[in-house]
Amino acid sequence: MKEKDIFIRFLSDRGLRMTNQRGLILDAFLGTERHVSPEELYGLVRRKDGTIGQATVYRTLKLLTEAGLAREVDFGDGVLRYEHSYGHEHHDHMICERCHRHIEVVDERIEELQERLAKKYGFVLTGHRMYLYGICSECRRRKA
Amino acid sequence: MKEKDIFIRFLSDRGLRMTNQRGLILDAFLGTERHVSPEELYGLVRRKDGTIGQATVYRTLKLLTEAGLAREVDFGDGVLRYEHSYGHEHHDHMICERCHRHIEVVDERIEELQERLAKKYGFVLTGHRMYLYGICSECRRRKA
DNA sequence: ATGACTGCAAATGTTTTGCAGGTTT
DNA sequence: AAACCTGCAAAACATTTGCAGTCAT
């Protein structure tokens, strides 16, 4: 399990320690492929350890983000979510407004045009967020 | 002033009334070309009427949004901002991470590729949000 | 011992809501 | 009167922080 090693390394590089709670949170995070909110993750972790506090979950998610293992995703619904970052290339998101299912997408040509657009205005891009909202085929079929 | 008429129309269509406060808030909103947060707008309006409450500002901004005069913009910094919608075509945003200056941008080719990308996954797009983050030329020059 | 870690509760910051009083129709 | 509006303060919400106690080195 490479991620755990990375995390341990990251922690010790900063004089921090790997703890039981951090391990549980990391496992729970890695164990789901969904975009989890801190609250959801808190629920998952609590099944393993009922005494854990949500502050610890919040704090650990920040650490995982700094360690490059997690990435914050903001769909704009007021809750921050986290997705796997290690071994997961950059991608954007397409979200169904009915069933809230979402797909990760990448389009090289779009990425390239974004760069060009930035250059046109004298910007050097550091990152971007792109969310495509729509209705997926299933939802359209179900309620056409 | 077309916007005011639209707002009055929108209100009366729903059995609501144009009031002094709503008028002031609309004027203040139209009077700035920046992306204002409710708090900023509250500050502006209070200069004209010191007794206005911020709840009224929040409520009116929601109304303006429903009326199609304002559009919510979420830069992901924890504050919702509002921009003019009437007579302002769709556009995306490019934000300087140093000076927080932002530019409104549109790229037809990107829009088109987004549509194609959606179609590829069976989605029909209803909208999208795209934020490009970077460093603007001035900030690069100032602190290269 | 020192410094890190944790759970808890309190604080934060933005936005929403309940309410009592005021205004319009 | 009925329905809408308003300001205020309280509530709601996700997230952060302070703190006192605990644990690892």
Structure description:
Chain A has a 3-stranded mixed beta sheet. Chain A has a two-stranded antiparallel ribbon with strand order 1-2. The first copy, chain A, is an alpha+beta fold and 144 residues long. Chain A folds into 2 domains: 2-84, Arc Repressor Mutant, subunit A; 92-143, Ferric-uptake regulator, C-terminal dimerisarion domain (Dna Ligase, domain 1, 2-Layer Sandwich), CATH 3.30.1490.190. The longest helix of chain A has 13 residues, at 54-66. The model of chain A has no long low-confidence stretch (mean pLDDT 94). Chain A starts with a helix and ends with a helix. Chain A has helices at 2-13, 20-31, 38-48, 54-66, 108-120, 137-142; strands at 70-74, 80-84, 92-96, 102-105, 124-135. The interface between A and B is medium-sized, with 32 and 32 residues. The structure holds a DNA duplex (25 and 25 nucleotides).
Short description:
Chain A is α+β, with helices and mostly antiparallel strands and 144 residues long. Chain A has helices at 2-13, 20-31, 38-48, 54-66, 108-120, 137-142; strands spanning 70-74, 80-84, 92-96, 102-105, 124-135.
